[in-house]
Amino acid sequence: MTINIISLRFDDHCSTCGTHLPPSTKAMWDRDAHEATCLQCVLDKQDAQTIDEALLEAIGVPKKPDSGVAGESARREFERRHSKREADLDTRFGRLSGVVKFLVDDPQSTRAWAKGSAGERLLAEGLTRRIGDRAVLLHDRRIPRSRANIDHLAIAPSGVWVIDAKSYNGPLQRRDKGSWGKVDYRVYINGRDQSRLVNGPLRQAEVVRTVLGDEGVPIHTALCFVNVEWDFFLKPFQIKGVWITYSKKLCEKIAEPGPLSSDEVLTVANRLAKGLPPAVLN
């Protein structure tokens, strides 16, 4: 069967649903059967992930971009530091290095990379499980001309979500440090003020806005904590417009209705995937 996407020269009807197809309508044309099929029926029959890319381009439907691997750059940084330490110990202690490695763990600054990578993977699993069919997810994206990266991007009808994953242990609290009549919320973890962390997703949102170059696309920011002890009565809250939240509630916010159509979601996702490539290429 030879199939092409053409602009019809004459009146026709879809061979599947019977819809009238006036001249100049784009449709799939089967040269062998001399039949036209409307593009909606073409998409209904085939998964947009497996359909031929050239065909998708002809239809005008953008292909869903590759999500990337969550936490990959942090994992590789941990391995780099760990390997360097192992080599340094071998040089310094020779045959006794094995004993030293057994007794002394990697420094906290090295272990933090492994913990961060695990947290990013855990959050990515939650995002995929809860909203993977309602949003396009991009993980571990490199910021141009920078060593920094964006942990997660979720593109949905509600807009673009810039998500910074943080893996911390201990209780999370919201404290109001404002004066009388003025609210000034801060986020505390294990009794320490960690409110400065909101600056990360705010900077990343500016990068996303520059890549998109479209002020009409809503951009949201979130600081999503994994492994913390979240008080049962504490709801997600905002600091400088950044949502302080956890996976389940974040997914509920992302899945809310919004101004972007499904085609616009794919278009925005592809633009971001191109402008913010994976931090680590496979």
Overview of the structural elements:
- It is a single chain.
- Strand 9 and strand 10 (192-193) form a beta hairpin.
- The longest helix is centred in the middle third of the chain and has 24 residues, at 108-131.
- Strands 6, 7, 8, 9, 10, 11, 12 and 13 form an eight-stranded mixed β-sheet that branches. A three-stranded antiparallel β-sheet has the order 1-4-5.
- Helix 3 (72-93) packs across helix 4, helix 3 (72-93) packs antiparallel against helix 5 (108-131) and helix 5 packs across helix 7 (247-254).
- The chain contains eight helices and 13 strands.
- By secondary structure, the protein is α+β, with helices and mostly antiparallel strands.
- It has two domains: 3-46; 72-76 and 106-275, no CATH class.
Secondary structure: elements and pairs:
Blueprint: E1 3-7, E2 12-13, E3 20-21, E4 26-30, E5 35-38, H1 39-45, H2 53-59, H3 72-93, H4 97-103, H5 108-131, E6 136-142, E7 149-156, E8 159-176, E9 185-189, E10 192-193, H6 199-212, E11 219-230, E12 237-239, E13 242-245, H7 247-254, H8 262-275
Parallel strand pairs: 8-11, 11-13
Antiparallel strand pairs: 1-4, 2-3, 4-5, 6-7, 7-8, 8-9, 9-10, 12-13
Helix pairs in contact: 3-4, 3-5, 5-7
